[in-house]
Amino acid sequence: MPLIRIDLTEGRSEEEIKAIMDTVQDCSVEAFKVPVRDRYQIVTEHKPGRMILLDTGLGFERSEKAIAIQVFTSPRATINKKKFYILLAENLEANCGLDPKDLLISVTTNTDVDWSFGFGKIQYLNGELPKEENE
Amino acid sequence: MPLIRIDLTEGRSEEEIKAIMDTVQDCSVEAFKVPVRDRYQIVTEHKPGRMILLDTGLGFERSEKAIAIQVFTSPRATINKKKFYILLAENLEANCGLDPKDLLISVTTNTDVDWSFGFGKIQYLNGELPKEENE
Amino acid sequence: MPLIRIDLTEGRSEEEIKAIMDTVQDCSVEAFKVPVRDRYQIVTEHKPGRMILLDTGLGFERSEKAIAIQVFTSPRATINKKKFYILLAENLEANCGLDPKDLLISVTTNTDVDWSFGFGKIQYLNGELPKEENE
Q: What is the dihedral of CA C15, B17, B35, A86, to 10 degrees?
């Protein structure tokens, strides 16, 4: 946790997709201060035309390279969300050549009891995992 | 925002899928009073059998044409949600031939700080985008 | 409702996928006390490498068989969530051979007005569906 869905249009190599996944994870670890193995990612590639991401009138056009990052997480402070967004824009550009205008991010919040990481246990409640400092 | 996921079973033409996307967007603009370029849609086609949408005992059978529309949005008033659902049922039938019983809708709510539309910025916080009237 | 997304990596037969779907549904009915036809499931298969599910440092390695179950639902009591997770771990192992360490579960909560099961109606508000006992 967080669980992060990454949606993008076909056309990237395996290496490019892996670099995006790695970069998103590094940003999550740095911004949310989660353990390095707190990694839950699902990438879905779509045919052209299956993703339409406009700009709400902000004044830019996205390319076919645009990606949507949807984050499901227990509560995170605004300061950590801000850091996460900025890191994503900077590092996806630096590491993956993603134009910062091609980055849509959305976060949805749940709570500790909403996560089971294996064995049907609730590891945030049974003490196996500590609460996170920025919740 | 909203970000709208549309899941459906294979078998529609490109034109039919595009018509569904356009209709869903028109309904969002009308019901939620968002800008016309406030459009964030992801369509996923599934093999037969990968979507099971029953009826909670309401007394109808859906067809293979059934679609699931999942909306992620900042808070919307009940009156706007009601309008959105009704518009979807009416207009997807009129424009796309969708049987109104083949329409499942689910909404999940987040907040302004949960959206970054590009450049790693939070456009609802930094003043680039105004708050929406029906939030 | 709940709407349940099941994400897994390619390599299972149609029968195996159907068994997972049926088992998840049986667990939902038992844990949440929903009607048997309260079934809304979407399965997405991914190419190898498109899902990365680690362990937050809990000390285990998942296999390529790992699945992510993401639940969207109106509020559920902790006791019902606990039961749901345990039933999933037990029954997916018994019925589908899923190693309990290969099971990631995440729940996201919304409310009654966030659901339309057909015809653009809000069946939890218009009286067609009763409130659920464990909400």
A: 50
